[in-house]
Write a structure and sequence with these properties.
A hairpin with a 3-residue loop joins strand 1 and strand 2. This protein is of the alpha+beta class and 255 residues long. The longest helix has 19 residues. Helix 1 runs parallel beside helix 3.
Length: 255
């Protein structure tokens, strides 16, 4: 009796690929409806393959997929937009790879990923720009992703006295909370990693958390604050994920 197959039409961005056999590959696709799924792209490495473009890394495509048991394979595909300009800059490409690794590590297969596909597409679009500020894009992505994952820090006010503004606001990484200069103490927070946020840094972090995806990259910050912001967002996200990423290490080396 032949194995029954079902067809799924879905939009997604290719965020990973692994060669298999002589001409095929496995690709990881970020989708809105199914999170990250692994798909077999038969003969996708052949020069004359009809799926070579749509299955390329960082390509947004419309896929028609066969599903047999728990395996997906491409029936047909049509590229919608290719972020090919990323390959012109090694730093941007490595940063995109870091973002992809974060998504692959944190996204479950067969589970809806509300807003993540659009957020990722917007981030890749920002990276493609000729004047892309990579440090800013990295910081924004890390902090916004923490919110998407349900790890959003509480940046509204001091966790003790609910003070909204203060000359010094301490951000405690392990708790994801703010403490104003009047309430903070080493006794309270022990040896936990903490950062002192000046008003500019705090405004930027609040802007990222509370803005819609379409606006999160539309702010300016001085170079010193931008470096500090990137260190804070990286420390916060990696602490709560409990691991590092080789693609991030590579980005730091070439940057």
């Amino acid at each position: 009796m032949p194995m029954l197959k079902t067809l799924h039409t879905i939009n997604g961005i290719v965020i990973g690929q692994r060669n298999v056999g002589e001409n095929s590959r496995f690709i990881d696709i970020l989708t809105e409806e199914l999170g990250v799924i692994e798909v077999t792209a038969h003969a996708a490495r052949k020069i004359n393959s009809k799926n070579i473009g749509s299955s390329s890394l960082f390509t947004y495509s419309k896929f028609c997929l066969n599903k047999s048991k728990s395996r997906y394979s491409i029936n047909s595909a049509e590229p919608v937009y290719s972020f090919h300009k990323l390959s012109a800059d090694f730093a941007s490409l490595s940063l995109a790879a870091y973002f992809a690794d974060l998504i692959k590590y944190t996204s479950a297969s067969e589970q809806k990923a509300d807003g993540l596909l659009r957020f990722f597409a917007i981030s890749l679009y920002e990276l493609e720009k000729e004047n892309a500020v990579q440090r800013q894009i990295k910081a924004v992505f890390e902090l916004k992703l923490s919110q998407v994952l349900g790890l959003s820090p509480d940046l509204v006010a001091c966790a003790d006295c609910f003070c909204y503004e203060h000359d010094e606001m301490f951000f405690v990484v392990s708790e994801g909370k703010l403490f104003c200069g009047d309430c903070f103490s080493d006794v309270k927070c022990g040896s936990d990693t903490r950062f002192v946020l000046n008003p500019g840094l705090l405004r930027a972090m609040r802007f990222i958390i509370f803005s819609p995806n379409e606006k999160i990259y539309k702010f300016g910050l001085g170079e010193k604050n931008l470096r500090e912001l990137g260190f804070i967002t990286e420390s916060y996200l990696l602490y709560h994920l409990g691991r590092g990423f080789k693609t991030l290490d590579y980005f730091k080396r070439i940057k």
